[in-house]
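Researcher: Good morning. I'm working through a list of sequences from a screen, and I'd like to move beyond sequence-only analysis. For each chain I'm collecting a predicted structure so we can compare shapes side by side. This is the next one on the list. No need for commentary yet; just the structure.
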Amino acid sequence: MRKWFKNCILLLIAACTVLAITACSSKDSLQKVRVAEVTRSIFYAPQYVAIEKGFFKEEGLDVELKTTWGGDKTMTAVLSDGADIALVGSETSIYVYAQGSTDPVINFAQLTQTDGTFLVSREKVENFDWEQLKGSTFLGQRKGGMPQMVGEFVLKKHGIDPHADLDLIQNIDFANIANAFASGTGDFVQLFEPTASVFEKEGKGYIVASFGEESGQVPYTTFMAKESYLDKNEATVEKFVRALYKAQQWVEENDADEIAKLVQPYFEDSDVETLAVVVDRYKSQGSFAKDMKLTEDGWNNLKTIMDEAGELPDDVEYEKLVNTKIVENVIKK
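Model: Good morning. Structure tokens for this chain:
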């Protein structure tokens, strides 16, 4: 009996060892991809879905995600090899190119195709009209970034000169804009979700308009990497895009409540109900780029917005900074 018991123990230890080795080998076999996202936002729901549903792991990838809080910091991470892939506005690739980079940053897949910010008023407005912004203090986004440029584009569309018709504040760091408004700065503010909806729920502000609906389609947030990284890791990047494509389709096919429940761990300060409202808002205005292809029309719209904001340093052709081959391969397969 004692011998039998001893043999069972030995077999159990051996089985556990094999399982441990298998688990380690499985983890080690995954290829690490370091992704730097410009901010943490429900606007990027498909990316979090790809992680939570295991779509990246299905492709043999171990995605390490970090939030870098700002376009300049995100691009610095990629250019200094602190990250392999950036999720950031396409305008940043133009800035890098215009500085004479010998290893340009290439846009290879689009995550969102509209602006993701909303106009929030400090006071409740029953019948909002853009004319109401004239003479107000407007807390805008960082100068040179897509939110700020789209914001100014929309204001001009409604006959408002952002530098003459209102008191425009642009000197507050991206990560502190919401806190500044909550502390009493500004009559209106341009905010991402879920912050805008949280403010509305807490009575700190009221959503009165969507910059995404007003500005039309634009490559607002894309995945990009240095040309040298794409050349050396094309197969890996295709797997990365394939996982994201699955996530985009999953988001398209599932309701807001289901999506909110899945991504809620990324937004510990927001409840599922609020997140569902935000997801539904983004889905209804077509923010998620389900086919992930950055179009030439979208690129030209981006340049128009940058030019009108006085921020276009170089009229860069679509083919120079956009690679659609990877997305096309994924869709074809």
